[in-house]
Design a protein that fits this description.
Strand order of the largest sheet of chain B: 1-2
CATH architecture of chain A: Orthogonal Bundle
Oligomer: heterodimer
Helix content of chain B: over 70%
Distance between the termini of chain A: 65 Å
Structural class of chain A: mainly alpha
Number of strands of chain B: 2
Largest sheet of chain A: none
Distance between the termini of chain B: 66 Å
Number of strands of chain A: 0
Order of helices and strands of chain A: HHHH
Largest sheet of chain B: 2 strands, antiparallel
Chain lengths: 125, 766
């Protein structure tokens, strides 16, 4: 029983690729938008993989076997709301970072960079 | 037996309560349990020597794990050292530590160690043995390191721990291999029918690694002299009488079954002989009396290894006799050093002079012990050494000659010890001495005299050794002072005369280029450099790099697994509803445009387009509730974004334009990652063969049970209502986080005019 079609598979590939790419950027705002795009992709994925399309699951409106599976819909609905919570929180973080340091770029970890420097010093005594 | 072991640990936990009142009383209280253990063992002498006593306690029955103990002849011999000598040393501690604040910690730890060591020698299960084995390593670490205030002690403690735990882990691996090959972890059952072939040689070598590290055999020996940083009673107990014998004990325990295996006896004999010679030689060069004894211990442990690895009946008699003799002469010698240190404030043999007259009592006891070490009749050391020569002359001449050279060195460093500690040196003023406490000399005398008594009453030792020795092939033998004129007696005489000559001869001053301690130091430093190197290269500090690494792993592991192992659907329709095409197209175009957007607001609007298109797709799929939630959330997000974007610059701030070199790999990884996820989606959806049972139940129960025709709504607010409560909780937490972040900014602005951030945040900003 095949439940996903080619067009939707391509769309998921595009959404995830864009999300991944934005996630690897330096600008916190881009990273945030990447998270949102990934969220859209994931919610769609949950719904698509959860079962074949059908009628809206409202009892009495159609025979039971014509309905779409309600369970993945409920899961995806929860996911949509949680994505929203995550988005606003990240947005507030990005805003705070901008207020504090004047930009919203992801900096390299100072401590990690220190270890790397120490390594270079060890290599060139 | 289990109760006895646990009692040690429990009382050790309670000892600090006693120390709070009197530290002296704490050591006396600690000595009670080991003394009781010795009495208990001696009361069970009969059954222990005739077959042994078993005691098994279930540990985790479902896993087949038991805590098994067994009291037999070999365990009894070890208990004499662990509990007997242990009790004596704990009494000695009363005099040594006095009311020093270190006493609290040492009393509890020494008793806990005695319990662990007792468990080790009684264990009849490989895993039980392993647990106690590591407990003794931990106790040794804590006792050597003391309070951790002294740098040298800290280093010594870490070295002892690293070396013994490394060996212990190797040994655990060996135990598992051996236990699986034998089909049982019970030592007595493995000894009854030892496994052969297959993984057994590997297992034996791994087990020997544990025994060699614990008993300070070549090339692992440097930790033992370094551990002399510990207080002297600790050295006397752990690093002479008991813990370092654990390796020897393990070899003795398993030798009856494996003495014929090349992988067992060859490493033992080679390492043992090498250790005996190196240790003896190094003991001649040290000037610290304690280190003289430490290298002497290393040497004697090598000797014991050879005896138990030789695998003949006579050698095992010699082994048991030497095991007891070594504990009974090395412990009093250490106690002597402690007494000298206590009375004069030094243990450097270049500074000591005239102690023979000023500390006569201690000197005589030490001489008695040293004579036993040198193998002079009628002490126990002589009895053991006679048997050793007899056994090795019979088994292997090269080994016998090696032991002879080792014995020459032993006599030499015994003489050096006595001379160094007590002689009157010309040109050195007699060392001022304050008379030692009877609590210091008494225990020394007790141990030294035990060596003399057992030497004369050697049939007692013979009876103890006999049940163990009968497990080996070979002619019968009995320990005795007089075996008639023969090669063994000649060897003993050569050892004494040769040893005195070596002691008188000047020593070459050259240091060996091969030093195991330097090897250890180099290894540890190298390990640190490798760790820094690996961390420096992998942990570059860049978030994009880390995320890229994670993505690559996702592509490589689950991605390839999907490609290879996934069941791909045979036919894949282009679309299931015509509306999917325009909606999907719109979402995809918007997504690609987001990447190219330079203005924040454009990007946010484009994300909104994706969100609404996805909502449309939900409707097409027959999920109106989902679509409704999606539209609401999307609208709300847009509003929130607009609020924040008001305050941010219109364009994305990027300090420099991203170079091609940076974004091409990112784009490639991201694209491949996207395709991999889509592939997983296809495979996952093809894996679904029927609608879930739960959904059918929801359809059936929703109208009557929840009073709702809309099944999704029924699930959200009724069937899975608790999930929804959790979801609301997440929203609350996020809202609290957002509020605090936004309000913090407002607080900064209002509270400090002209200052946008608190001081410490300024530091971060640079």
């Amino acid at each position: 029983m095949v439940t996903i079609n080619l067009a939707m598979a391509v769309l998921i590939a595009v959404l995830y690729a864009v999300g991944f790419f934005l996630l690897m950027q330096r600008s916190l705002m881009r990273v945030l938008i990447g998270v949102v795009v990934l969220g859209h992709g994931t919610n769609l994925l949950l719904q698509l993989v959860g079962g074949p399309p059908g009628r809206a699951p409202i009892v009495g409106s159609a025979p039971n076997d014509a309905f779409a599976d309600p369970l993945p819909q409920a899961l995806a609905l929860t996911a949509v709301v949680i994505t929203f919570a995550l988005t606003t929180f990240l947005l507030a973080l990005g805003y705070r970072s901008f207020v504090l340091v004047g930009h919203d770029e992801v900096q390299d970890d100072v401590e990690d960079a220190r270890i790397a420097r120490q390594q270079i010093q060890d290599d060139e005594p | 037996m289990f109760a006895l072991v646990v009692a040690h640990l429990a009382v050790a936990g309670l000892l600090p309560l006693v120390s709070a009142r009197s530290r002296r009383a704490a050591f006396l209280a600690a000595a009670v349990l080991p003394a009781v253990t010795l009495v208990w063992a001696l009361l069970n002498l009969g059954p222990a020597l005739h077959g042994g006593i078993d005691a098994t306690t279930a540990w985790a029955p479902a896993l087949g794990l038991t805590v098994s103990f067994r009291l037999d002849a070999l365990a009894l011999a070890m208990i004499v050292l662990v509990s007997g000598v242990g009790a004596v040393i704990l009494v000695y501690c009363v005099g040594y530590f006095g009311d020093s604040p270190d006493g609290t910690r040492n009393a509890a730890l020494l008793l806990a160690f005695a319990g662990a060591m007792l468990g080790l020698v009684l264990a009849d299960d490989l895993l039980t043995l392993y647990v106690f084995w590591e407990l003794t390593s931990v106790a040794s670490f804590l006792l050597v390191g003391q309070s951790g205030a002294d740098r040298a002690a800290r280093r010594a403690a870490v070295q002892a721990l690293l070396v013994t735990v490394f060996g212990g882990l190797a040994m655990l691996l060996g135990f598992i291999l051996l236990g699986e090959a034998a089909g049982t972890y019970r030592i007595s059952e493995i000894l009854a029918s030892p496994p052969t072939g297959g993984t057994v040689p590997v297992a034996l070598v791994l087990i020997l690694l544990g025994a060699f590290t614990k008993s300070a055999q070549l090339p692992f020996h440097p930790w033992l002299p370094a551990a002399m940083a510990a207080p002297t009673p600790v050295s006397a107990y752990l690093h002479a009488a008991s813990m370092v014998k654990a390796g020897v004990y393990l070899v003795a325990r398993l030798s009856p079954a494996f003495a014929g295996e090349l992988a067992w006896w060859l490493p033992i004999v080679v390492a043992g002989l090498g250790t005996m010679l190196i240790g003896g030689f190094r003991a001649l060069r040290e000037t610290d009396l304690k280190r003289v004894l430490a290298f002497g211990t290393v040497s004697q442990l090598g000797f014991l290894m050879v005896l138990f690895g030789a695998g003949s009946r006579v050698a095992s008699y010699a082994g048991v006799a030497m095991l007891l003799a070594h504990g009974l002469f090395k412990a009093p010698l250490f106690m002597t050093v402690g007494t000298i240190d206590h009375s004069t404030g030094t243990r450097d043999l270049r500074e000591l002079s005239g102690l023979w007259t000023s500390m006569r009592g201690t000197a005589v006891a030490a001489a008695l012990a040293a004579l036993s070490m040198a193998g002079i009749p009628p002490l126990l050391g002589f009895v053991g050494k006679e048997a050793a020569f007899e056994a090795l002359l019979h088994d292997s001449l090269p080994a016998a000659l090696g032991i002879l050279v080792g014995s020459v060195l032993t006599v030499a460093y015994s003489a050096r010890f006595l001379w160094g500690a007590f002689a009157t040196r010309p040109g050195v003023a007699p060392t001022p001495v304050h008379a030692p406490d009877a609590l210091l000399t008494g225990p020394t005398w007790l141990c030294a005299l035990a060596g003399l008594v057992l030497g004369v009453a050697n049939p007692v030792v013979d009876a103890l050794a006999a049940p163990y020795a009968t497990a080996y092939p070979g002619e019968d033998y009995h320990l005795a002072l007089w075996h008639g004129l023969g090669l063994p007696l000649l060897f003993s005489a050569i050892a004494v005369v040769g040893g005195l000559l070596v002691f008188r001869a000047p020593l070459p001053e050259r240091r060996s280029p091969l030093d195991a301690q330097r090897g250890y130091d180099g290894l540890i430093a190298g390990l640190g450099r490798v760790a820094t190197g690996v961390t420096g290269r992998l942990q570059v500090g860049s978030l994009p790099f880390y995320l890229g690494t994670i993505l690559v792993v996702v592509i490589l592991l689950p991605g390839i697994a999907t490609l290879v192992g996934g069941v791909w659907p045979a036919d894949q329709p282009l679309f299931s509803a015509a509306l999917q095409l325009p909606l999907g197209f719109a979402a995809a175009v918007a997504a690609v445009a987001v990447v190219r957007a330079r203005r924040r607001f454009t990007a946010v609007l484009l994300v909104g387009v994706i969100g609404y298109a996805v909502g449309g797709l939900f409707i097409v799929d027959g999920a109106p509730d989902l679509a409704l939630a999606q539209f609401l959330v999307e609208t709300l997000s847009l509003v929130v974004f607009v609020f924040v974007l008001r305050r941010l610059p219109a364009h994305f701030t990027e300090s420099e334009k991203p170079s091609r070199r940076a974004w091409v790999p990112k784009a490639v990884i991201a694209s491949v990652g996207g395709v991999a996820v889509a592939g997983m989606a296809v495979v996952a959806s093809a894996g679904r063969t029927a609608p879930p049972v739960a959904s059918g139940d929801y359809f059936r129960l929703a109208p009557a049970g929840a009073g709702a025709d809309n099944v999704v709504a029924a699930i959200i607010v009724d069937f899975r209502a608790l999930d929804t409560v959790g979801e609301i909780g997440v929203l609350f937490i996020a809202a609290a986080g957002v509020a605090s972040l936004v309000l913090a900014t407002r607080y900064d602005r209002r509270g400090r005019a002209g200052q946008s951030s608190p001081e410490h945040e300024k530091d971060v900003a640079g």
